[in-house]
Amino acid sequence: MNFDNNLPIYVQIGDYLKKQIISGKLKEGGKLPSVRDTAKELKVNPNTVQRSYQELERESLVFTQRGMGTFVTEDKDIIKNLKKGYGNDIIKKFMEDMKTLGFNSSDIIELINDMVKEEKDV
Amino acid sequence: MYNTDNIVEIKNLTKRYGNKSALNGLNLSIQKGQIVGILGPNGSGKTTLIKILAGILRKTSGEVIIDSHNPGIDTKAIVSYLPDRNFLYEWMKIQDALDMFKDFYDDFDEGKADELLKFMKLEKDMRIDGLSKGMKEKLNLTLVLSRKAKLYILDEPIAGVDPVARDQILDAIINNYEENSSMLITTHLVRDMEKMFDEVAFISEGQIILEGNAEGLREEKSMQIDDLYKEIFG
Amino acid sequence: MRKYMKYELKGTYRFMLAIILVVLVATSGIQIYTSNMLDQPSAPGGIFMALMGFAVFGAFIASIFYLIGNFRKELYEDRGYLTFTLPLSGNQILGAKTIIALMWSALLVISFLVYNILLARILHGEVIFTVIREGFQYISSLNLDTALTVYLIVFIFSVITTLLLIYFSIALSRVTIGNKKIGSIWVIVFLVLNSLIGLLSIKVAELIPFYIDISNFSIITESDFVRNLGNIESHIVGNYPGMAIFTSDMFALNVGFILFNILVAIGIYMGTSYLIEKKVDL
Fold this sequence. Notes:
The complex is a heterotrimer.
Chain A: H1 9-22, H2 35-42, H3 46-58, E1 62-65, E2 69-72, H4 76-100, H5 105-121
Antiparallel strand pairs in A: 1-2
Helix pairs in contact in A: 1-3, 1-4, 2-3
Chain B: E1 6-17, E2 20-31, E3 35-39, H1 46-54, E4 61-66, H2 73-76, E5 79-82, H3 94-104, H4 110-119, H5 133-145, E6 151-155, H6 163-176, E7 182-187, H7 190-193, E8 199-204, E9 207-213, H8 214-221, H9 225-233
Parallel strand pairs in B: 3-7, 3-8, 5-6, 6-7
Antiparallel strand pairs in B: 1-2, 1-4, 8-9
Chain C: H1 2-36, H2 43-76, H3 80-83, H4 90-124, H5 127-141, H6 145-176, H7 186-207, E1 210-213, E2 218-221, H8 222-227, E3 244-247, E4 250-254, H9 255-279
Antiparallel strand pairs in C: 1-2, 1-4, 3-4
Helix pairs in contact in C: 1-2, 1-4, 2-4, 2-6, 4-9, 6-7, 6-9, 7-9
């Protein structure tokens, strides 16, 4: 994992973990690797990883069980919302880009419908 | 009088060689349990600072306190120092170096040393003068990290080693970092090492010109420490 | 200190055993050659003897430089980064180095002597012991035993002092000048200090005109000495005039001289430990 944008490392690690949760690589109720293992894998200061975990916990995406470790939430709605949030962010950016190219909303929907059809044919 | 949360307190430290100053009223504190990066180009005073902390160079003036002692025999017992050169005796085999560390440092952990040697792919019967530069660096780091020291001081731990050795060295540092000990690491290879630091201090002409929490600085300046380093020294 | 001595020994034994081996082999060559030598000396024989002689001499010189270098390297080479970050005092490091250097010197001299006597015994038979015994008897008949014992003690003491003064000169040069390129400046420092100590011991001996009679450890003055002896034959022996009075049945050492030299030895030892622990900048 490369850390090359301008955000603090703990934010970037949080982002990386969130994507793993959304994509199902980290399952609902599943155990996260320990702070130390994540630190090792990403070659990052353990205190920084700790902070990422704390942020995820604050957002109720994970919970800590004393002596057991950190687990992904079992609440599907929270994960769904997270996924939706990420999706919305991508779409928002996409819409903005398209609008700067001069497409209006109905043009965009049309294009997407065509694209979906093509994908089905293949 | 001293803040007991700090393992190191340096006040107004000056080191002069003749009329040249290597350190110029430098101030720095290191908290217990933190990994601190001292960042600066060659000749900025990094190594001078570290050698004073290791007890092999004398300050001209100012104050240096390590775990409530002045640098000396007491601090040498609790400071684990990786110099920027090959400090082991030429006649030694790796086993001799291990024996020596075990004999002289009460905090030396043989089990940890065995583990690290294996990780670094080093054998105890290897002769030290037959090792490549990267292997020597790995051996030196193995010895230094096998102590459960209160303060680790690493002077340019990844300078001049190949990428594979570099990754091994970074892994070893993270794996063996203990929460209640502190680390001071100098480097000019900021990009490779910045993820390791809790705190960073930029050193130039023998003074700390900027210091702070690494994440705080990233947030405040909206850039990675490496970019900040380039902005300051570039 | 004992722990550090272990590593000093481990680091030096290969070279020093090789030196001892060279000395023993070369002296064997000399002894075997001379015992078989015909009346006519031959040119190749002469060259052989010269080579063997050089080998012995060279090995002794090499061992001296090696043992001095073993201290000097700590101050000028990277190994100092290990030695001086060990939790050891200057005293412990210097003590270990001094003891190991003296031990090797003693071992070299003793093995040289014992081996050569044994070899002579093999080559020439029992007669060699008779020769040695007669030598000792001759010395006792001259009443020289006490003087020789004192000589031996003074000699050993001066070897130790010289070694310590060399260490001190090296440490002082490193602390004041520090430049590796003129690292051999210690030789000049050593010569100056050595002369200074020599001069001062004579001055002190003059200031304190009391002597210890070695035969009964009583304190006498020069005039007692002269008065108590009918037929005076005073010789001054030793490196420094005034340090001792020696006649056919009396041997007396100057008190000031002894005290001064002992104090100097302690002083340079402590000075060197202080310099290497508190002053050297690596």
